[in-house]
Structure formats: C-alpha cells, structure tokens
Amino acid sequence: GTPAPVAALTADARSVRGCIMAADPTMLAVSNVLSRDLVQRCRFWPDVTGETYGPYRRVLADGRSVPRIDNPAWQDALVDYLTSGAAVIVSRNASTGYDAASYRMLTHEGRLLYREPGLAFVRTPVHQP
User: Fold this and answer.
1) Which runs of E-coded beta strand occur in the chain?
2) What does the alpha-carbon distance between residue 13 and residue 3 come to, in Å, rounded to a whole number?
C-alpha cells in the first residue's frame, strides 16, 4: 500500500486534545497517539470489521452475511464509534465497508486537519473548537 504521511499525521495529532479514532489502528500508531488514547481509556476496537461477525452481523434469507456496505446497523455503529472522539483519521479501505453516506459524513462534516487521496484527518463535528 501507500505509506502513511507520518510527519503530517503526527503534527496534526499533537493539536488534538482528547481521543483520536480510526478504523485502522495502524493510523493511530504511526501518528503517535495509540498509547496516549489507551491511557486515556478511549474507546478502541482493534479490528472494526470484526464487529460484523458479532453484534452487527445481519444475515440474508440464504444464510449469507449482509455485506458491510449494505448493513445499516454496521454503518450506524461504525460512524458512532469513529465520531466518539475529538477527531478521526479515515482511510479509504474497501474492506472496512464504509457506504458513501458514512464516508461523506466522516470526511466532510468536521473541520479538516489533513487530506490526501484516500485519507482524511478530521475533527469530529461535536468536538470542534
């Protein structure tokens, strides 16, 4: 994959007070906030997609799981989780299963701190200064 913009994420992360959320914990690690978030007892799902095998699993009539992108319960839970902190790092990863509305909400409704193709670092709307 494409290397993470470590310097930019780390610099912007220093300006955020409170929890920084991400669907991919690697983004928290490279921006030097994973340990800080854990010490602050921030919500942490180490594998957000794993939640669709448990509480947010929905099943079709034929027994197959509803794909994440088509699962409204999953979309609501994902957005709720990612907007529970002061900021969110959103990386566009097809396996996460953001639908268009969730992705747009996460990347366009808060104050933008950093953006590049496939990656956005945004203050969540509730926590904007």
Assistant:
1) 20-22, 87-91, 111-116, 119-123
2) 17
Name the β-bridge partners of 114.
121
Bridge pairing between strands 20-22 and 111-116 = unpaired
Q: What are phi and psi of 14, to 5 degrees?
A: -65, -25
The predicted structure's pLDDT at residue 65: 93
Measured torsion, CA atoms of residues 40, 35, 16, 103, in degrees rounded to the nearest 10: -100
d(CA 93, CA 33): 21
Among 124, 127, 122, 125, residue whose Cα is nearest residue 12: 122
Provide the pLDDT for residue 129.
Answer: 47
Confidence (pTM): 0.88
Which residue from 122, 26, 28 is spatially nearest to 83, judged by alpha carbons?
122
**37-80 residue pLDDT tens:** 999 999 999 988 888 888 899 999 999 999 999 999 999 999 99
